[in-house]
Design the sequence.
């Protein structure tokens, strides 16, 4: 991906301004059906897994449903070698504090649309410690979800159905193996080092977006907190209405 392409992105929670428009969507655990592919040649060291990154019958928490055929153009470019779909763990490209977490952990060797959804087959990078760690978690089924990161959708490719929208054409940046939502509280408890490394408002905004806020809400939270601290924890009282104001009219 070249610099010009990166500059067209926008994102709710980003690692840098260059990736400001990539949106992430996570499949529900039961929907992803991620599993290891058993070796067929008798070897014992397989690093290949497969699962569904998108299901046609699923409406995500953002009120989005992907139509079958939405990834046809992307798959054609992928198969021709023109397009690469990256693989990170937990959307690691957004992690600005941990270079290891931001490493790509493998590559996708097959992406197809079938009757169920967007089925992918990925291969973890042999010899890479982070890839080995994620591979072990996937095999042990402690990591069993997939999450997509995609570019902005053109209005012409969206159909409003009232209670949700149908996306008819989409382009992915990456697909991440991700852990379960129940692990979220444990991850939040490990934020002390991240907090200590905060240097400016942008760092704080990035941290808050990783905790679930979008960028606008994160900035609003920081501004509000700054206002509260600046006023000693008390907001200025509203002036009392003047009972004799009518005399000035």
Sequence:
């Amino acid at each position: 991906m070249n610099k010009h392409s990166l500059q067209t992105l926008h994102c709710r929670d980003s690692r840098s301004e260059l990736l400001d428009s990539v949106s992430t969507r996570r499949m529900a655990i039961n929907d992803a059906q991620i599993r290891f592919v058993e070796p067929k040649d008798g070897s014992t060291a397989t690093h290949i897994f497969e699962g569904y990154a998108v299901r046609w019958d699923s409406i995500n928490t953002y009120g989005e449903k992907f139509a079958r055929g939405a990834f046809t153009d992307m798959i054609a470019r992928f198969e021709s070698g023109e397009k690469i779909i990256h693989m990170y763990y937990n959307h690691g490209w957004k992690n600005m504090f941990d270079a290891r977490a931001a490493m790509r952990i493998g590559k996708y060797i097959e992406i197809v649309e079938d009757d169920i959804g967007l089925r992918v087959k990925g291969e973890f990078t042999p010899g890479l410690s982070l890839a080995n760690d994620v591979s072990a978690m996937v095999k042990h089924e402690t990591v069993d979800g997939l999450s997509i990161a995609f570019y902005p959708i053109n209005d012409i490719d969206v159909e409003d159905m009232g209670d949700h929208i149908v996306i008819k054409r989409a382009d992915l940046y990456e697909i991440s193996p991700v852990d379960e939502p129940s692990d979220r509280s444990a991850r939040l408890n490990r934020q002390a080092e991240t907090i200590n490394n905060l240097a400016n408002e942008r760092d704080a905004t990035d941290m808050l977006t990783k905790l679930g806020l979008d960028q606008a809400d994160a900035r609003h939270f920081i501004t509000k907190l700054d206002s509260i601290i600046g006023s000693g924890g008390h907001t200025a009282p509203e002036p009392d209405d003047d009972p004799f104001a009518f005399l000035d009219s």
Observations:
- The two ends are 65 Å apart (CA to CA).
